[in-house]
Design brief:
The protein is α/β, with parallel strands linked by helices. The chain has helices at residues 10-21, 33-40, 51-61, 97-106, 126-138, 154-159, 171-184, 186-190, 200-231, 235-243, 264-277, 285-308, 334-344, 357-363, 373-377, 390-393, 397-403, 418-423; strands at residues 2-6, 25-29, 64-67, 78-81, 115-118, 141-144, 164-167, 195-198, 315-319, 348-352, 368-369, 382-385, 408-411, 427-430. The strands form three sheets. A six-stranded parallel β-sheet has the order 3-2-1-4-5-6, sandwiched between helices. It has a six-stranded parallel β-sheet with strand order 11-10-9-12-13-14. It has a two-stranded parallel ribbon with strand order 7-8. Helix 5 (126-138) links the parallel strand 5 (115-118) and strand 6 (141-144). Helix 1 (10-21) packs across helix 3 (51-61) and helix 9 runs parallel beside helix 12. It is globular.
Length: 434
């Protein structure tokens, strides 16, 4: 099938490459000429494991191409809209200008029987509005097919998701949309992936509800870490104990620096803003979820200042800048927030991340960036593990200690054996652990 993907940022580039991997003829469209040039050459403009290989195969096969010309979407049967929905300036509401512009730009190139498919995370009610516009202008149908990608696993999550959700209109339009999406995803569906067909509003709510639930679970265990810190309890053992309850589960119960990235913080704020617009208090608790999450960043900064004593001029090694491992994404990164706050307090911050140095330098150029753990820790008065990269889990405390000016470490991601580090003479602090 011929497919177009409008918007070739993180979501769109991955989706376009994976659709070509499934055997479709795909054209990706974006307004950023430099991004399009990179993608057209088969190079990923950001770090995502597995994407370079899938992208290169698609371009080399001729099934995948990229352009800045929206007219190139003409003739495709299915058009995926995968543009961003950032926060509106001065508000927590989602900014829909890019979604509206993408759909508006598509309208002249749609034919009767085409299907426009929203992938972007939008406030409930958006699909119904856009569906009326698409049908009235072109005779095409509209569906909403939310994405559930985890950065670091996006290729696998696109090719083998844990579920498909189709939000479709009623009647024959919904039947046509469902049939076309089933054709697009024929391979994964044949492998047994679950498929749920819903109305528009339910499909829109699925993604933001999932993100709100995950954010709440993370903030819950971090709130318990605050209680543990005040009482001498161990939040990791607590998480193990309650995680054995099948109704709760252990995943997303690792206390630490909290969540970040381009989805969870933005989406829970936009979700609450939409509830407010509807005159509902149902999501008021998300303000507390957000507050707990932001409070953990300040707590780590305060802990670092306490351990340092004399802050001004002290070398601080920051290990990790991305909001999570296997990504170079520093959007709303707790790690980068902590690094910048320590720099503002007068510390000499030297940072290392296996993939995110370059992206971090674009938004925090005042930090010093180095190319290895060894360079970061050399002569440091304090080291902080702020992103749970695998290579940080295996650090040798004795070797690290020999390089540092003072044996002090903060494990903000629960990846180090604090007892082992203390045995090697470290003042080692974790979050929610005695």
């Amino acid at each position: 099938m011929r497919i177009s993907v409008i918007g070739c940022g993180y979501l769109g580039a991955v989706h376009a490459a994976c659709m070509a991997e499934l055997g479709h003829d795909v054209v990706g469209v974006d307004v950023d000429e430099s991004k399009v040039a990179e993608l057209a050459a088969g190079r990923a403009p950001f770090f995502e494991p597995g994407l370079p290989e899938v992208l290169a195969r698609g371009v080399a096969s001729g099934r995948l191409r990229f352009t800045t010309d929206m007219a190139e979407t003409a003739g495709a049967r299915v058009h995926f809209v995968a543009v961003g929905t950032p926060q509106t300036a001065g508000s927590h509401a989602a900014d829909l200008r890019y979604v509206d512009a993408a759909v508006g730009g598509l309208l002249p190139h749609l034919s009767d029987g085409d299907l426009v498919v929203g992938k972007s995370t939008v406030p409930v009610g958006t699909a119904a509005r856009l569906g009326d516009l698409v049908r009235a202008s072109s005779g095409a149908d509209l569906a909403w097919n939310p994405e559930f990608l985890r950065e670091g696993f996006a290729v696998a999550d696109t090719l083998s998701p844990d579920r498909f959700v189709y939000g479709v209109p009623g009647g024959e339009g919904g039947e046509r949309a469902t049939a076309l999406l089933d054709e697009v995803y024929a391979g994964p569906l044949a492998a047994g992936m679950p498929r749920l067909v819903t109305d528009y509003a339910t499909a829109e709510l699925v993604k933001v509800s999932a993100n709100a639930f995950l954010a709440t679970k993370i903030s819950f265990i971090n709130a318990m870490a605050e209680i543990a810190e005040a009482t001498g309890a161990d939040v990791t053992q607590l998480a193990d104990a309650i995680g054995h309850d099948a109704r709760i589960g252990r995943r997303f119960l690792n206390a630490g620096l909290g969540f970040g990235g381009g989805c969870l913080p933005k989406d829970i704020r936009a979700f609450q803003a939409r509830a407010d617009e509807l005159g509902l208090e149902s999501l008021a608790f998300l303000a507390d979820v957000d507050a707990v999450n932001m409070r953990r960043r300040r707590y780590v900064v305060d802990l670092a200042l306490e351990m340092l004593g004399e802050v001004v001029g002290a070398k601080v090694a920051v290990l990790g800048l991305a909001f999570k491992p296997d990504s170079d994404d520093v959007r709303d990164s707790p790690a980068l927030d902590v690094a910048r706050a320590l720099q503002e307090a007068g510390a000499h911050v030297v940072a290392y991340d296996p993939e995110a140095n370059a992206t971090a330098a674009l938004v925090a150029p005042g930090l010093e960036y180095v190319d290895s753990v060894d360079e970061a820790i050399q002569g440091a008065a304090l080291a902080l593990v702020l992103t749970e990269w695998r290579q940080f889990r295996g650090l040798d405390p004795e070797a690290v200690g020999r390089s540092m000016a003072h044996r002090r470490v903060i494990d903000a991601r629960t990846v180090l054996d604090l007892a082992l580090w203390r045995d090697h003479g470290f003042e080692a602090r974790g979050l929610g652990r005695p």
